[in-house]
Write a structure and sequence with these properties.
By secondary structure, this protein is of the alpha/beta class. About 35% of the residues lie in helices and about 15% in strands. The site of adenosine-5-diphosphoribose has 26 residues, from helix 1. InterPro entries: Macro_dom (IPR002589), Macro_dom-like (IPR043472). One of its GO terms (molecular function) is O-acetyl-ADP-ribose deacetylase activity.
Length: about 200
């Protein structure tokens, strides 16, 4: 079992599930949410719109996750999770972000997903400090793998080199051996990620 860090566009990954860093409406937005909706096609928004509101304007509360099909994406499922907006770290942000990873992995196990890719949830518009978020991603995925067989492939997707490095450092700090990153001059597409082998 291994945790991988890969640099590139999550919408191109032919994995069983890609995780979307959505907002509570689940009706799309910018960043990775916008990229996933564009790549999936309009049926994704239709599917999200059919999901029940749990309260006015909210289909998926922060820290929770809901699955839809992936439509035109190469993945099979999209797991829509909503990360916390960063304020000051004293409004449950760490626990809510940890829930995004843990509940997505629980859903993956339930749906017999064998490979799952996560973007850097909350690290864009929602302003979560990158290294603190990377530490949570590393801690949650490593803890999951220690106790579960599936999903056997967990990929942390970095969209830029700063995120790639933060994941590398966080995995190393969490005791996961990490291969040297590929030289920066190689294209992001070729950037076969540091693979942390258990
Ligand atoms: N593939 C992988 N990662 C991506 C991609 C992509 N195609 N596009 C952006 N990212 C990265 C960003 O660089 C960032 O590291 O995803 C991470 C999360 O950033 P955001 O997409 O801004 O998500 P978040 O910070 O969780 O904010 C969510 O933004 O787009 C809206 O509707 C969304 O309101 C919600 C909010």
């Amino acid at each position: 079992m291994k945790i991988e860090v890969w640099q590139g566009d999550i919408t191109t990954l032919a994995v069983d599930a890609i995780v979307n860093a959505a907002n509570e409406t689940l009706l799309g937005g910018g960043g990775v949410d916008g990229a996933i909706h564009r790549a999936a096609g309009p049926e994704l928004r239709d599917a999200c719109e059919r999901l029940a509101l749990v309260r006015p304007g909210v289909r998926c509360p922060t820290g929770e996750v809901l699955a839809t099909e992936a439509f035109a994406l190469p993945a099979r499922h999209v797991f829509h999770t909503v990360g916390p907006v960063w304020h000051d770290g004293h409004r449950d942000e760490p626990a809510l972000l940890a829930n995004c990873y843990w509940k997505s992995l629980q859903l993956a196990e339930k749906l017999e997903v064998r490979s799952i890719a996560f973007p850097a949830i909350s690290c864009g518009v929602y302003g979560y400090p990158l290294y603190q978020a990377a530490q949570i991603a590393a801690t949650e995925t490593i803890a999951w793998q220690r106790g579960h067989r599936e999903p056997r492939r967990i990929i942390l997707v970095a969209y830029n080199s700063a995120t790639f490095k933060a994941y590398q450092q966080a995995l190393l700090a969490a005791g996961q051996p990490v291969e040297e990153a590929c030289p920066a001059e190689r294209s992001a597409q070729d950037m076969r990620i540091a693979t942390a082998l258990e």
